[in-house]
Amino acid sequence: MAEQLQPTRKSSQPSADPPRSASLPRDDVDRDVGNDETSPDPAVTGDFETGNTVELLDNSSIGDSAVDLPDDDSRFSDLGKDSYASSFLSSILSEAEDYYWDNGRRYHAHGGGRYLLPNDETELDREDMKHHEMMLLTSGRLHFSPLPPDPQKILDLGTGTGIWAMEIADQYPSAEVIGTDISPVQPKWVPPNLSFEVDDLELDWLYRPDSFDLVNIRFMFLAIRDFGAVLRQAYRAAKPGGWVELTELALRPEALGAEAVGRSPDVVFRWLELLKTGAEKRGYDYHVQKRFRSLLAEAGFEEIREEVLEVPWGPWHREKRLRAVGFWHMQQLTEGLQGITMHTLSKGLGWAPQEVELFLVDLRKDLSNLSFQLLDHCHVVYGRKRLR
Ligand SMILES: C[S@@+](CC[C@H](N)C(=O)[O-])C[C@H]1O[C@@H](n2cnc3c(N)ncnc32)[C@H](O)[C@@H]1O
């Protein structure tokens, strides 16, 4: 059996009814969305379908020892039983909390610090905001793949805060859900049909072939260098008739309001271009979502489908739901700006940290100008494993 994580993050039991308010793991008290700095117009942001406040959770234990659950905790005893014991899983577990700090941010050292984004509290907050944004964007759908009403096994690769895995476990009590990540930052109290494992998805998987109804891969473009290899493994692990679902932002926003503003948001476009170049230098395809359909087909999947969803950057859209999506998108983007940018530009392109910080000052100005009406797209691509 694969080693089970003994996660440290606290969470309330998630609701089974998406969309739900964002579970933002912060110590502060309820936040008034309408009063947030990111919103230029409280009247616009105050009427979100989500309500004015978000549920805030205590996660003060983050960073504590990752081994504080009793070994014999029966809730965890045999979940993940279809993943086989292996020496490399153990060796990854031994480096599970191999963190390092750089410019005030915490990163995982696995693979020589290959993953460029931090794994600290600020980043985890951002991940949960992104999930909330996705729930608004998809009107509460955790997946588009047409699953049976009682799926048996679901795998979430690079589970992050584990929020998607927790909600899918609640939605499908019939399913054994496994969330894997290199960082053991997931909550401690989770639905009984969910387990978290420390694992590197770029290594050989040890899951039983033909076993998963759904393999979920969301927001992983900066974590996976060879999507083809991962999808081949996902094909093997999926049940005949099982699905693999990939979700990624295009990161190519159009500036619909540029003409009215009298200029284009050049700093935003330059930033995206720099991130792309930096990521490519580290071996990642910044626009990999363009290849998802062909990669799924090459791996053997059929019935490949794609949903393309509009994502406004900031609360400028006339449609209420998309205004809320835009609000949360800008929230997570501005909160994550330094974390998203620092290592890609410093380690990828050799910028000094001070240069990055100065660049971010200009970037924030363009990003906060809602008149640019930046509109991006989210791609959800899914395919089915052949039925024998
Ligand atoms: C942007 S987060 C996505 C979180 C989650 N999928 C979601 O949608 O909420 C990427 C996650 O991938 C994890 N990761 C990076 N490299 C990985 C690897 N080689 N194997 C497994 N997880 C990895 C990171 O630790 C991080 O939690």
UniProtKB/TrEMBL annotation:
<keyword id="KW-0489">Methyltransferase</keyword>
<dbReference type="InterPro" id="IPR029063">
    <property type="entry name" value="SAM-dependent_MTases_sf"/>
</dbReference>
<feature type="region of interest" description="Disordered">
    <location>
        <begin position="1"/>
        <end position="49"/>
    </location>
</feature>
<protein>
    <submittedName>
        <fullName>S-adenosyl-L-methionine-dependent methyltransferase</fullName>
    </submittedName>
</protein>
<dbReference type="Pfam" id="PF13489">
    <property type="entry name" value="Methyltransf_23"/>
</dbReference>
<dbReference type="GO" id="GO:0032259">
    <property type="term" value="P:methylation"/>
</dbReference>
<dbReference type="GO" id="GO:0008168">
    <property type="term" value="F:methyltransferase activity"/>
</dbReference>
<feature type="compositionally biased region" description="Polar residues">
    <location>
        <begin position="1"/>
        <end position="15"/>
    </location>
</feature>
<keyword id="KW-0808">Transferase</keyword>
<feature type="compositionally biased region" description="Basic and acidic residues">
    <location>
        <begin position="25"/>
        <end position="34"/>
    </location>
</feature>
